[in-house]
Amino acid sequence: MKTKLTPQELKELSLLLKQDEENLQQLNEYGVLDVIRTRAYLIEAEFKKLSVESKQLKQDIVMQLARKYNISVSSIEVVVYSKHINKKCNCNTCGSKVTKYKYRKNAGICDDCKST
Ligand SMILES: [Zn+2]
After folding, report:
1. Are residues 78 and 96 in the same domain?
2. How many Cβ atoms from other residues are within 10 Å of residue 93's Cβ?
3. Sign of the dihedral through C-alpha 12, 50, 71, 98
4. Superkingdom, according to UniProt (predicted)?
5. How many angstroms is it from 40 CA to the middle of ligand 1?
6. 62 CA to middle of ligand 1, Å?
7. What is the mean pLDDT of each run of 10 residues along the chain (116 residues)?
8. Tell me, what's the pLDDT at 1?
9. Is the same domain home to 76 and 92?
10. Same domain, 8 and 50
């Protein structure tokens, strides 16, 4: 994953946050922006927008974003699904909290229990 935001990403961010693009560019240059979180924010916003505006399947939107941001489909899924579903569930094996998305994906157990 790139360590700095691209000019296109900065432009989209400035529109989303209603912030001056030049300021964001400077912050990006200084390396003080949290690139991963910022990119997650952009991906989530774009996913929401496309879900409303386009008639594409959610999975197609995920694929499209994965290509655009050049990151894996599963990374996109973590961003767009785990954030949407804030409700937590408890792991059936150890009782620790897991996101609803993970809960469904892993058939009711957390990552730790799944890997053991
Ligand atoms: Zn567990």
Report:
1. no
2. 13
3. positive
4. Bacteria
5. 26
6. 28
7. 82 95 94 90 94 92 94 90 65 86 86 86
8. 47
9. no
10. yes
H helix intervals, the chain: 7-17, 21-30, 35-53, 58-69, 73-84, 100-105, 111-115
> First vs last Cα of the chain: how many Å apart?
29
Say which amino acid occupies 111: D
**Structural domain boundaries, residue 107:** 86-116
Six-digit token string for 2: 């790139």
From the CA of 79, how far away is ligand 1's center (Å)? 22
Query: What are 97's two structure tokens?
Result: 């909290």
Whether residue 15 sits in one domain with residue 56: yes
Q: Tell me which residues have their CB within 5 A of the ion that is ligand 1.
A: 91, 93-94, 110, 113
Distance (Å) from CA 103 to ligand 1 centroid: 10
pTM: 0.67
For ligand 1, the distance from its centroid to the CA atom of residue 101, given in whole angstroms, is 14
CA of 81 to the centre of ligand 1 (A): 20
User: Same domain for 53 and 40?
Assistant: yes
43 Cα to the center of ligand 1, angstroms: 29
